[in-house]
Amino acid sequence: MILTKTVILKIVNPDNDLVETMQKYSDGMNYASSVVFQNGKTIGSYKLQKIVYGYLREVIGLKSQMSCNIPRQVSGCYKTLKEQIKERKVIWKEITFSPYSMTLSYKRDFSISQDLVAITTINNGRKPYKIQSYDNAQQYFDGTWKFTASKVVRHKDSNHSFHLSIEKEVPEKELEYSSNYMGIDLGMNYLAVASTTEKNCRFFAGGHIKDIRNQYMSMRKRLQSKGTLSARKMIKHLSDKEKRLMRHVNHMISKQIIKFAIENKVFLIGLEDLKGIRENKVRKVRKDKRYHQSSWTYRQLQDFITYKAKEAGIKVHFVDPAHTSQECNRCNHISNTNRNRLKFICKKCGYENNADLNASMNIERRTRDFGYISLSQGCLSATQTNA
């Protein structure tokens, strides 16, 4: 199976050439976007390239490969918009792009080593930029990883980073190693609860993280009440600090989860398909709890679990999340009164358990059912299991 990752590397010496190139790139993106918007419907990338290529090259002055990248990106964004329109989340609108991100093709737009990344600029061709060397990033330059289309990202503090996309083939476990499955329930009281077919379980506590985030929330409220420029700057600083904290926590939790899976010889990990949970759930949550719900980084944790599982040769399957927290793992009775905060007591059979553990056991059962059906049909593959 193909393992993909993104390695974030800091660019030490960004200059005006890089900034101007990113500005021109965003100008090209916005021009292509205006063409699609005025058309009133999506345009395929090949057709869009025919329409905008000359303008991007001759008027804006972009290089050839950038002028090919832009139509693909813009067309992809409008396809996503079309799907959101079908789900009645948004209406048809013009998508605008800021000069804070630029996609580059490997070899055509950039080349890279452990210490330098050479990027094609508008005014001075291919220019080398020094990148900060990290010990944990050196492993990705050993020749076993393939570099793919990557991004230059400009942050609001004017720092620049290079988001290097990489991939490689990793071995898959054979189908016979399928006796043990694992379900993972993600939440806010416990960041994750894992349960296996063999009834081994583990809680990954998040209470102390919740306390820290409550402190950040309180500090933000005090600063917002002041409304001064320095207060707004401090709010931005706190927000970035909190994001770094949660990213670090998610890395640590996902690492522990995969270690637990390896120790239990797990073949397939089940996660809930939580797409759209923010839109569906936030308005139902008490007002004083909405911050934690809306800022919950469940998707990032799922992404970390997925790629770390791939590295370990473990498959990941996303199950329907409906009623996982309300269904009794013993008798399958479903009721919204079965769960009361952290307690689960089945109103039909009297089964009692921790509510999050009961949910993880339901996810494991659904994952196991999927695995057994797929194995019996001989069709369990990475394309079916990984979202």
From TrEMBL:
Residues 298-363 form the Cas12f1-like TNB domain. Residues 165-275 form the Probable transposase IS891/IS1136/IS1341 domain. Keywords: DNA recombination, DNA-binding, Plasmid, Transposition. GO terms for molecular function: DNA binding. The keyword DNA-binding applies. GO terms for biological process: DNA recombination; transposition. In the C-terminal section; belongs to the transposase 35 family. This is Transposase, IS605 OrfB family, central region. The lineage of its organism: Archaea, Methanobacteriati, Methanobacteriota, Stenosarchaea group, Methanomicrobia.
